[in-house]
Amino acid sequence: MFLPERRVDPPGIYEKPFKEMYDYIVVGAGSAGSVVATRLSEDYATSVLLLEAGISDLEPDDVTQIPYLWPSLIGSEKDWGYLSVQQKYSHFAYKNERAYIPQGKVLGGSSSINAQVFVRGSRNNYDQWEHEGAVGWGYDDVLPFFKKLENATDTTYRDSTLRGLHGPIVIKEITGSILQSFHQTAAMEIGFPTVDCNSDDPIGRLLVSINGVGGF
């Protein structure tokens, strides 16, 4: 078995076949699997095989390299194209009340087919998991790892104790159209503050983060 050769690769780089044995085999090259494989491979004495069911997104002209074209990836060969179970109280405008759930079938997983939006989830979600028995998965437990992977120095919330400044993923704020100022004014008039979408209480008009440079 050989990896498929691409025109951008140096000649002969894929002539070496897969090894018969590896120290680690990581199944799934999505956001989590890619990071796990990267961290394991930092030990040069360790051999790591990363498997992905989908295709590569490393071609220079690949659509995944152009952020504003991400909607064209929904329903493509790079999307698993899952459907939810039939909903009882919502999705009445959808066929059989089932929601379409795009999930990346490509190197990088769903992080390669979304809009690069960087949202951790609410503190309540993690604390609820811990309350239900997932010890070590509370918000205060996972926060140091979120901070470790991001670099938010070029944002208005860079001084927040909830943000990291030295990680490999550069975070930027989405800059919208002139309508953005009207949205902010309207939110303030009805009592909603402007908050970081990754604050521990993200209720209000959100400052949305994007992965500005690229991931692992």
UniProtKB/TrEMBL annotation:
One of its GO terms (molecular function) is oxidoreductase activity, acting on CH-OH group of donors. The keyword Endoplasmic reticulum does not apply. Residues 104-127 form the Glucose-methanol-choline oxidoreductase N-terminal domain. Its cofactor is FAD. InterPro entries: FAD/NAD-bd_sf, GMC_OxRdtase, GMC_OxRdtase_N. Keywords: FAD, Flavoprotein. Belongs to the GMC oxidoreductase family. This is Glucose-methanol-choline oxidoreductase N-terminal domain-containing protein.
